[in-house]
Amino acid sequence: MNKNDKKDASSLPDYTIENILHTGNWMNEKFSDHLKEYALSIQQYQVLSSLRELKGEPANLLTLQAEMVSKNSNTTRLVEKLRLKGLISRIQSEENRRMVEIRITESGLNLLAEIDAVHSEFKNDIVDGLTEEEILILNKLLEKIRNK
Question: Could you give all domains of the chain from N- to C-terminal order, each with its CATH number?
């Protein structure tokens, strides 16, 4: 009998929320540890990934902020740290002097390619033991909770 079997119906919502939060924190810790060897935070990784998805097109701070999982991230600070590492470029727009165009550099793309090679194994370890059907169900349920 597992923990869930011992819960009565009235405590299931509390248990479910607690379980989701605990799992999210556990995954954040594992992912953060995984990125430490690349001297990146999760938020920095998200910025780089968002820029890579744009395939060379520039982004601005508002675009990147909207893509962040944690909306409380200080995007300006994250972008500056990545710029100092040579992973992104920040150039004032010629069309609108108040706008800054942010692009991923070749070094940033190379770092993401290196991370991707190991990241695939890391992601598989997270869902190891779940069937493809269970993974699909889990994703549908999490999306259902988020999209209310």
Answer: 3-146 (1.10.10.10)
d(CA 137, CA 94) in angstroms, rounded, equals 48
Which residue is listed with tokens 């968002």? 50
Span 86-95, pLDDT tens digits: 999 999 878 8
Quickly count: other Cβ atoms within 10 Å of residue 88's Cβ.
24
Biggest CA pair distance of the chain: 65
Q: Find out whether 89 and 79 touch, Cβ atoms under 8 Å.
A: no
Phi-psi region of 96 (alpha: psi -120 to 50; beta: other; left: phi over 0): beta
Which pTM was predicted?
A: 0.78
Which residues, including other chains, have CB under 8 Å from residue 144's CB and lie 6 or more apart?
none
